Amino acid sequence: MKDILTHGFEELRITPPPGAAEKLCQYAELLIRQNQVMNLTAITEPEQVARLHFLDSAAILAWGARPAGAAEHGGKSWLAGKALVDVGTGAGFPGMVLKILEPSLSLTLVDSLGKRVTWLEEVCKALSLDGVRCFHGRAEELALEPEFRDGFDVATSRAVAAFPALCELCLPYVRPGGYFLAMKSVESGGEVDGGQNAVKRLGGKLLGGWDYPVPGAGITHRIVGVEKLSLTPEGLPRSWGKIKKAPL
Ligand code: SAH
User: Fold this and answer.
1) What does 28-67 look like in DSSP terms, one character per residue?
2) 75-99: per-residue pLDDT in tens?
3) At 163, is the pLDDT very low, low, confident or very high (cuts 50, 70, 90)?
């Protein structure tokens, strides 16, 4: 697995800190073992975990459509020192992988499934990851609390909801000047078009998609970027029932 990761990082043109590949191998072991007793992932073959979970998540660091406001500087990655929230993180993707690859990240993980959150807390201890907060709750409810609202540099989310609904779950967390990055398939064009109004209503501006080949997987995925321009309007996000029934 280590070789696959090392080559993959090169392909993505990212330089992880010493020991990151080893930490990811340890994470994979914990994931595969725990998956036998609870449902964390459908992907259980180590090589596939490396490519479809770890390298796919790592693509956020390589986000090639970064505007000037998210530039790398001083030889550091664009996520260095940032506060990032991963909404609907599941078994920790992409959030945990980003923390391992960029240890200066201040990471917040949110998931509505308590068992997964408890397991993530154990993984953080096992991997000695500092600066990770794990929250069990619904994204649209936590975003109403002042501590979370308009407070993060970056929000990420993968495989959680269709784009219009996802915007309402994630954009409220982002501070003006920050970014929401939705990890999507290359077939997401229609879904993203349908979210134009949601982006606007939530105070954002659609930056568009950036396509990348997932190293060694023979597939292309897309990061859809949204910049937050203004504070989240009052009354948003709404309850999940409303979000689902009538997307913005
Ligand atoms: N991001 C991970 C998990 C995707 S599965 C990955 O890409 O592998 C979707 C996850 O989102 C599940 O763990 C589910 O519990 C969580 N989820 C769905 N809706 C949510 C909501 N409204 N608030 C918080 N978590 C949510």
Assistant:
1) HHHHHHHTTTS---S--SHHHIIIIIIIHHHHHHH-TT--
2) 899 999 999 999 999 999 999 999 9
3) very high
The radius of gyration of the chain's CA atoms, rounded to the nearest angstrom, is 17
Q: By alpha-carbon position, which residue is closest to atom 8 of ligand 1?
A: 93
Contact residues of ligand 1, CB 6 A cut-off: 88-91, 93, 110-113, 116, 138-140, 158-160, 169, 240
168: tokens are 């309402």
Pocket test for ligand 1, best of 110, 113, 160, 183 (most atoms within 8 A of CB): 160
Residue 25 makes CB contacts below 8 A (sequence gap 6+) with 1, 2, 5
The owner of tokens 């959680």 is 160
Pocket test for ligand 1, best of 31, 44, 111 (most atoms within 8 A of CB): 111
**pLDDT value at residue 69:** 85
Q: Is the pLDDT of residue 68 over 90?
A: no
Mean pLDDT of the chain: 97
pTM of the predicted model as reported, rounded to 2 decimal places: 0.98
Atom 12 of ligand 1, nearest CA residue: 90
